[in-house]
TrEMBL record:
<keyword id="KW-0592">Phosphate transport</keyword>
<protein>
    <submittedName>
        <fullName>Phosphate ABC transporter ATP-binding protein</fullName>
    </submittedName>
</protein>
<dbReference type="InterPro" id="IPR017871">
    <property type="entry name" value="ABC_transporter-like_CS"/>
</dbReference>
<dbReference type="GO" id="GO:0005524">
    <property type="term" value="F:ATP binding"/>
</dbReference>
<keyword id="KW-0547">Nucleotide-binding</keyword>
<dbReference type="InterPro" id="IPR027417">
    <property type="entry name" value="P-loop_NTPase"/>
</dbReference>
<keyword id="KW-0067">ATP-binding</keyword>
<dbReference type="Pfam" id="PF00005">
    <property type="entry name" value="ABC_tran"/>
</dbReference>
<feature type="domain" description="ABC transporter">
    <location>
        <begin position="17"/>
        <end position="265"/>
    </location>
</feature>
<dbReference type="InterPro" id="IPR003593">
    <property type="entry name" value="AAA+_ATPase"/>
</dbReference>
<dbReference type="InterPro" id="IPR003439">
    <property type="entry name" value="ABC_transporter-like_ATP-bd"/>
</dbReference>
<dbReference type="InterPro" id="IPR005670">
    <property type="entry name" value="PstB-like"/>
</dbReference>
<keyword id="KW-0813">Transport</keyword>
Length: 270
């Protein structure tokens, strides 16, 4: 089974690559997210913002079925990747994650060499071509090659936090996904490493479609083309996240349509 992928050269830049319609997401009996429609546009960075617990990470992880690994997780809705529902019965989540890769909050290189970290997914996918070339290309695209080219056999864990996160990005892009999901990729990093990752994201969007969860609104403003603002509904006695509004980052920050968005943004900036 394979999933369709964009022919980048002959598609318009604003094509929707992932169209996510969430009706309900439960963890056990807990309704975590409801009624949210989130289109992810090709070769753009989409930022997810909102208060703690509003479901940003849950929604992001839905986009490549990463939540399937949680036993209590239940999804009602559809996530269409180029029109194909990735939650359909015959779709293998492992294949989904080959097209839609993920980078986590804590840099999590494997306890193996820098080279092996990048080659890991390729070996898993039984890549038969020139591995050295692939590893070099991924490390170059992750802006890490110059810093590690003379120590590829050193442990990935010997790198600094920022370098480890760039290594994880290299690992994620080595198998050429189309979409990269990033769950607060800078939250464990200092300001300099954060800035490097932000610059890298801006470069990556020339080749990849990116969605990022961030707590940092300035970061969303710096990197995101589109922004989705989520909030928490406590009206029924629960704490259920939902999408309040989504649009271009400029529109959401400068001309929000919803009072909740206005209040959240002005609260953060005043
Ligand atoms: N594995 C899980 N089991 C049970 N509940 C969970 C699980 N993961 C998340 N939740 C709950 O789902 C809701 C949404 O969590 P999520 O982590 O997606 O929110 P978030 O907006 O990313 O939060 P934060 O900004 O604090 O990281 C929260 O109430 C959280 O407690």
């Amino acid at each position: 089974m394979s999933l369709p992928r964009s022919q980048a050269a002959d598609t318009a830049p604003s094509e929707t690559v992932i169209d996510c319609q969430i009706d309900k997401i439960h963890y056990g009996d807990f309704l975590a997210v409801r009624d949210s429609k989130i289109p992810i546009e090709q070769k753009k960075i989409t930022g997810f913002i909102g208060p703690s617990g509003c479901g940003k990470s849950t929604v992001l992880r839905c986009l490549n079925r990463m939540n399937d690994l949680i036993q209590t997780f239940r999804f009602e809705g559809q996530v269409h990747y180029h029109g194909q529902d990735i939650y359909a019965k015959d779709v293998d989540p492992v294949v989904v994650r080959r097209y839609i890769g993920m980078v986590f909050q804590q840099p999590n290189p494997f306890s193996m060499s820098i080279y092996e970290n990048v080659a890991f997914g390729l070996k898993l996918n039984k890549f038969k071509g020139d591995m050295d070339k692939k590893v070099e290309k991924a490390l170059k695209r992750a802006f890490l090659w110059d810093e590690v080219k003379d120590k590829l056999k050193a442990s990935g864990l010997s790198l600094s936090g920022g370098q480890q996160q760039r290594l994880c990005i290299a690992r994620a892009i080595a198998s050429e996904p189309e979409v990269l999901l990033m769950d607060e990729p800078c939250s464990a990093l200092d300001p300099i490493a954060t800035r490097q990752i932000e610059e890298l994201m801006l470069e990556l969007k020339n080749r990849y479609t990116v969605a990022i969860v961030t707590h940092n609104m300035q970061q969303a403003m710096r990197v995101a083309d589109n922004t989705a603002f989520f909030s928490v509904d406590i009206s029924q006695g629960g704490r259920t996240g939902y999408l309040v509004e989504m649009g271009s980052t400029e529109q959401v920050f400068e001309n929000p349509q919803q009072t909740l968005t206005k209040e959240y943004i002005s609260g953060e900036f005043s």
